[in-house]
Task: inverse folding
């Protein structure tokens, strides 16, 4: 029998519709968790908007906004245990904050401070990955290490729809399946890889179905529905802990530019953006919480103020942190500095000519 | 002491390191049941089990990338790339990931891992099985590149590489795997990475070489010294990156002449680097131009012409005579 792609059935998981109404039985999520999820989404968006402004003012460098993807990131990271690891790309501020990276650390990263790479010092979050898809293999290796050392830790790789075209993504899924590794791949399908739309990235109807080819489980979830993402991720983590890797496709939208260096009006229509703004993850969750009687406009306003203060505080910490010095670049190449590096380092800040 | 070949020394070292440290695991293509295409890992899977000696799918990027993931989470993986010509598939994971993780994390993470790979000519292989690609990795700060030329060196250097906290590319000249046996101590010893080995001292000229061309250079020098009144110093680099400047410079300052021999293509490689180093730091000690005797700047050729393409005894002899003529 021919295996026809159109015959593969993928049903998108959704709990809240675009207006915040329940579309299926409410899963067992406590009010306290609802508040936690929402507050983190507010925090992530507040950070994101400030970072954009600071970049425009020339106070930080290039930044990759995540606005619109809060539910996909917060919902998935909120489900993690402390012992779990995140392997992020460069658009994962939301997920990384939830898992323990400080906002100051992100500011330092965007300010070009070497210390911006130290996320793993105080949290189980790998440094930001620039090469598309490369972190999928590190997550596989991390999961492998945790399996061999019985750490009961799941490794989570975050990538985008564009990343699923890379060889490393496919090799990672393949290894995960062959060795039954405790790993979850969270694909945020935000519809755009810089200027290339999802339809030109792959001929697959969905990204979730790619899992089947590697003998692992795939699932597609409404990535702007934080409850759907959260409850799906909880189930995925349970499976992963049993050695059953999972590929999650969170269907979402990059409301902003690819980075601060990009102008999306060159390649996409405003109608499309407007349509997705109606599906905004924060608006949807807020409506649901108000309807449930655990939230109101006043609390909401205050939450944004609290988040704003935290961002200001973090930026202050970052600006008060000593900048990187040129001579420091020699300190992190090898464990022991070879003579050549010592010699090159000694010339920094002097008028000596390097021989 | 036991008489053994280089491949036996490598196999023994892997076994001993895995016994010494249960964080050491081996992964690669055909390294388990089959024991590796050259038998470097022969018997290891039977001894240590499938969890520690892993036959992987054919995916070089994944082998190296997974090793980076393992190494940053507490293991000490020893990955095998079946032939060095296949490492292009893993270039990002080698040069942009393994090499840079210490730097990218400002010293928070490290990748104590070894990537072993056979390479080198004279074995009549199909395409892309013989290429000497060490030069690509000299240009990747954060990596160490090590190359043994004997069974004794292979054992001490490989043990040191496995215990090193930086990623080490360990390149094994396949021509030398079974070329000769020598006495190798069974007990533990390390050879320091980053230090060259002066194989013989001499007064008139320094030959700097490494890996597969070391035995060849020794033969050529022995013959020349027997027939002519010359004295040649031979340096086996052992580590190509970071290079042992001190030993090279001390030797050239003494002899005033240098010939560099390697199998890799001529341009932009280790030879060019060594020559530049001597020019920067010992130019006024030189009495003759530095000569490089290397592979030509073409893709590695077909087997029927590889003996002429490689730096053979004739070309090395000519190089030495030319430099001595000044």
Result:
């Amino acid at each position: 029998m021919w295996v026809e792609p159109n015959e593969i059935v993928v049903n998108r998981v959704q709990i809240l519709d675009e207006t915040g109404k329940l579309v299926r039985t409410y899963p067992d999520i406590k009010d306290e968790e609802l508040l936690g999820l929402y507050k983190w989404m507010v925090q992530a968006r507040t950070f994101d908007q400030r970072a954009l402004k600071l970049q425009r003012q020339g106070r930080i460098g290039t930044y990759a906004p995540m606005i619109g993807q809060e539910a996909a990131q917060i919902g998935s990271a909120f489900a993690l245990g402390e012992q779990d690891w995140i392997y992020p790309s460069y658009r994962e501020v939301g997920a990384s904050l939830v898992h323990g990276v400080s906002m100051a650390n992100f500011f330092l990263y965007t300010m070009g401070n070497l210390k911006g790479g130290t996320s793993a010092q105080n949290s189980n979050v790998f440094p930001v990955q620039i090469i598309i898809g490369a972190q999928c293999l590190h997550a596989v290796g991390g999961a492998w290490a945790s399996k061999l050392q019985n750490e009961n830790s799941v490794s989570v790789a975050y990538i985008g729809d564009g990343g699923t075209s890379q060889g490393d993504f496919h090799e990672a899924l393949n290894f995960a399946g062959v060795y039954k590794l405790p790993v979850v791949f969270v694909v945020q399908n935000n519809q755009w890889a810089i200027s290339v739309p999802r339809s030109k990235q792959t001929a697959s109807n969905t990204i979730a179905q790619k899992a089947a080819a590697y003998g692992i489980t795939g699932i597609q979830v409404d990535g702007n529905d934080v409850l759907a993402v959260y409850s799906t991720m909880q189930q995925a983590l349970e499976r992963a802990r049993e050695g059953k890797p999972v590929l999650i496709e969170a269907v979402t939208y990059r409301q902003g530019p690819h980075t601060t260096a990009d102008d999306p009006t060159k390649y996409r229509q405003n109608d499309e953006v407007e349509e997705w703004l109606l599906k905004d993850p924060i608006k949807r969750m807020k409506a649901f919480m108000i309807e449930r009687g655990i939230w109101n406009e006043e609390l909401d306003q205050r939450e944004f103020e609290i988040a704003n203060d935290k961002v200001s505080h973090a930026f202050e910490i970052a600006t008060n942190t000593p900048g990187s010095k040129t001579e420091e670049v020699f300190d992190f190449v090898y464990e022991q500095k070879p003579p050549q590096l010592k010699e090159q380092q000694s010339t920094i800040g002097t008028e000596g000519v390097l021989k | 002491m036991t008489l053994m070949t280089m491949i036996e020394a490598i196999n023994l070292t892997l076994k001993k390191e895995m016994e010494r440290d249960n964080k050491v695991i081996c992964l690669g293509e055909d390294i388990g049941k089959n024991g590796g295409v050259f038998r470097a890992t022969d018997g290891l899977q039977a001894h240590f089990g499938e969890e520690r000696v892993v036959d992987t799918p054919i995916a070089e990027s994944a082998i190296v990338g997974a090793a980076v993931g393992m190494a940053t989470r507490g293991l000490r993986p020893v990955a095998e790339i079946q032939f060095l010509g296949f490492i292009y598939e893993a270039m990002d994971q080698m040069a942009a990931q393994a090499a840079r993780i210490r730097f990218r994390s400002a010293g928070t993470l490290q990748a104590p891992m070894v990537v072993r790979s056979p390479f080198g000519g004279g074995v009549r292989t199909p395409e892309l099985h013989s290429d000497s690609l060490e030069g690509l990795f000299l240009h990747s700060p954060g990596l160490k590149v090590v190359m043994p030329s004997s069974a004794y060196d292979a054992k001490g250097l490989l043990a040191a590489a496995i215990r090193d906290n930086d990623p080490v590319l360990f390149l094994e000249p396949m021509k030398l795997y079974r070329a000769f046996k020598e006495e190798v101590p069974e007990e533990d010893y390390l050879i320091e990475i980053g230090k060259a080995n002066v194989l013989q001292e001499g007064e008139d000229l320094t030959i700097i070489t490494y890996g597969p061309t070391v035995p060849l250079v020794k033969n050529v020098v022995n013959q020349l010294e027997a027939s002519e009144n010359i004295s040649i110093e031979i340096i086996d680099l052992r580590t190509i990156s970071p290079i042992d400047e001190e030993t090279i410079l001390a030797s050239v300052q003494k002899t005033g002449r240098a010939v560099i021999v390697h199998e890799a293509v001529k341009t932009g490689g280790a030879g060019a680097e060594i020559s530049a180093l001597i020019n920067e730091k010992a130019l006024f000690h030189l009495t003759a131009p530095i000569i490089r005797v290397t592979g030509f700047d073409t893709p590695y050729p077909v087997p029927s012409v590889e003996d002429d393409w490689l730096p053979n005894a004739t070309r090395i002899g000519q190089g030495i005579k030319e430099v001595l003529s000044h």
Summary: The first strand of chain B starts at residue 2 and ends at 4. The two ends of chain B are 45 Å apart (CA to CA). Chain B touches chain A through 48 residues (CB under 8 Å).
